[in-house]
């Protein structure tokens, strides 16, 4: 006779066991064991806890909302039924988001150069040049150059706008500029580099040329992610800086801090930093997920549109849940299975949302076949394994 450990353990011990699950698919599978397990997962907010554990940047999310669905106000504690619906919705959104982030797709995510802390010759040596693939533009070298400094410890800052307010960044590439027109072909790299991600405290909706000439400080932005410091090689190559863990950028802006100067210029004997190319690879989650700032609060509303597909550079739409090619044997159906279960859970929140989990025959409408790790068939009836 099988025993349900949830009935034998206290809540804290059960939560510790559930928190050992580090994949959204595992949490969804656990919630389907029985109605009691599903209620436990939803009531304890384990989907949200999993998202926060994997991506701490989500701590600035004040609440979640469903586009074309129902958003619960933040002060829902007075009604237990409304509070339960809020927790159920959180479970859907955070589980869907965590699974999508696990896909770790890598696309170029920078769309616009915003500002450099200094520019030697504007606009010829503008930050815009760092987003141009060619090394030459109109018969001249294409690069950004800082102003010269006698102190080699003076840093520089480059700010870029990402594709959307919610991006997952895996790695950043930087190519220092080599001055082939100067004696000795010097390379103007920095000693090291660091990355921050976040959003401006005020809208950057005025003339972009004016913005590029502004000198922004940390007082002008909220940075909700800061990377370690990476050494930079004094080489003319596109250098890859792999983040320790994929970073979730909430707000849509990337700051590149170039720390320390290496190369003097012979003409004025000042230290410069020059960059040819910059690229940030990861995944934009728009329009399926967006983060809308709450005015003057430093918090965001996480908006989820289950009908939408995330943008991709090749025009291929991404479904609500995808199956990764590297799924282990016996799990080949879990992507579709999660998709079906999430769609079923979404029905009360999104009017007209299709139930792709419906069986074709009336007599089997409550049964779903899945494969366990050994390839044996399990039957799920009314959310319970039998």
Bulk shape:
elongated
Terminal residue distance: 13 Å
Query: What is CATH's topology name of the largest domain?
Result: Jelly Rolls
Mean pLDDT: 77
Number of helices: 8
In the CATH hierarchy, what is the superfamily of the largest domain?
A: Galactose-binding domain-like
Q: Identify low-pLDDT runs.
A: 70-78, 314-338, 356-386
Secondary structure layout plus pairing:
Layout: H1 5-8, H2 11-18, H3 24-31, H4 35-43, H5 46-54, E1 61-66, H6 80-101, E2 107-108, E3 110-116, E4 136-137, E5 140-141, E6 144-145, E7 156-162, E8 166-176, E9 190-200, H7 208-212, E10 221-226, E11 230-231, E12 239-250, E13 253-261, E14 263-264, E15 271-272, E16 274-284, E17 289-293, E18 300-304, H8 334-346, E19 367-371, E20 377-381, E21 384-385
Parallel strand pairs: 1-18
Antiparallel strand pairs: 2-16, 3-7, 4-5, 6-16, 7-13, 8-12, 8-16, 9-10, 9-11, 9-13, 14-15, 17-18, 19-20, 20-21
Helix pairs in contact: 3-6, 5-6
Description of the molecule:
This protein has 386 residues and is α+β, with helices and mostly antiparallel strands. It folds into 2 domains: 5-103 and 308-321 and 332-345, no CATH class; 108-278, Galactose-binding domain-like (Jelly Rolls, Sandwich). The chain is built from 8 helices and 21 strands. The protein has helices at residues 5-8, 11-18, 24-31, 35-43, 46-54, 80-101, 208-212, 334-346; strands at 61-66, 107-108, 110-116, 136-137, 140-141, 144-145, 156-162, 166-176, 190-200, 221-226, 230-231, 239-250, 253-261, 263-264, 271-272, 274-284, 289-293, 300-304, 367-371, 377-381, 384-385. The strands form 6 sheets. Strands 3, 7, 9, 10, 11 and 13 form a 6-stranded antiparallel beta sheet that branches. Helix 3 packs antiparallel against helix 6 (80-101) and helix 5 runs parallel beside helix 6. The longest helix is centred in the first third of the chain and has 22 residues, at 80-101. The protein is elongated.
């Amino acid at each position: 006779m099988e025993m349900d450990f949830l009935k034998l353990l206290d809540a804290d011990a059960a939560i510790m066991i559930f928190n050992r699950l580090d994949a959204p698919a595992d949490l969804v599978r656990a919630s389907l064991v029985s109605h009691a397990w599903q209620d436990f997962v939803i009531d304890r907010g384990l989907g949200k806890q999993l998202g926060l554990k994997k991506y701490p940047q989500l701590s600035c999310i004040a609440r979640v909302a469903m586009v074309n669905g129902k958003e619960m106000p933040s002060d829902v504690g007075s009604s237990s039924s409304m509070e339960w619906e809020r927790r159920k919705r959180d479970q859907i959104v955070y589980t869907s988001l965590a699974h999508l982030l696990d896909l770790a797709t890598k696309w170029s995510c920078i769309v616009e150069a915003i500002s450099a802390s200094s520019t030697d010759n504007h606009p010829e040596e503008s930050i815009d040049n760092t987003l141009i693939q060619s090394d030459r533009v109109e018969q001249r070298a294409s690069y950004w150059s800082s102003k010269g400094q006698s102190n080699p410890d003076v840093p520089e800052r480059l700010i870029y706008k990402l594709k959307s307010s919610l991006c997952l960044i895996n790695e950043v590439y930087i190519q220092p500029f080599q001055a082939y027109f100067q004696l000795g072909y010097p390379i103007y790299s920095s000693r090291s580099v660091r990355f921050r991600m976040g959003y401006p405290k005020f809208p950057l909706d005025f003339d972009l040329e004016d913005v590029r000439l502004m000198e922004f400080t940390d007082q002008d932005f909220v940075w909700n992610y800061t990377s370690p410091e990476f050494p930079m090689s004094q080489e003319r190559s596109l250098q890859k800086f792999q983040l320790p863990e994929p970073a979730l950028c909430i707000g849509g802006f990337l700051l590149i801090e170039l720390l320390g100067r290496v190369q003097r210029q012979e003409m004025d004997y000042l230290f410069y930093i020059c960059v040819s190319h910059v690229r940030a690879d990861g995944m934009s989650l728009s329009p399926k997920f967006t983060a809308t700032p709450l005015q003057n609060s430093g918090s965001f509303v996480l908006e989820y549109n289950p009908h939408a597909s995330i943008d991709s550079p090749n025009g291929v739409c991404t479904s609500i849940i995808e199956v990764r090619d590297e799924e282990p044997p016996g799990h080949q159906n879990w992507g579709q299975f999660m998709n079906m279960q999430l769609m079923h859970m979404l029905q009360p929140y999104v009017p007209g949302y299709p139930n792709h989990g419906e069986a074709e025959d009336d007599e089997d409408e409550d049964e779903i076949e899945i494969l366990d790790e050994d390839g044996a068939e399990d039957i799920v009836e009314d959310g319970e394994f039998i």
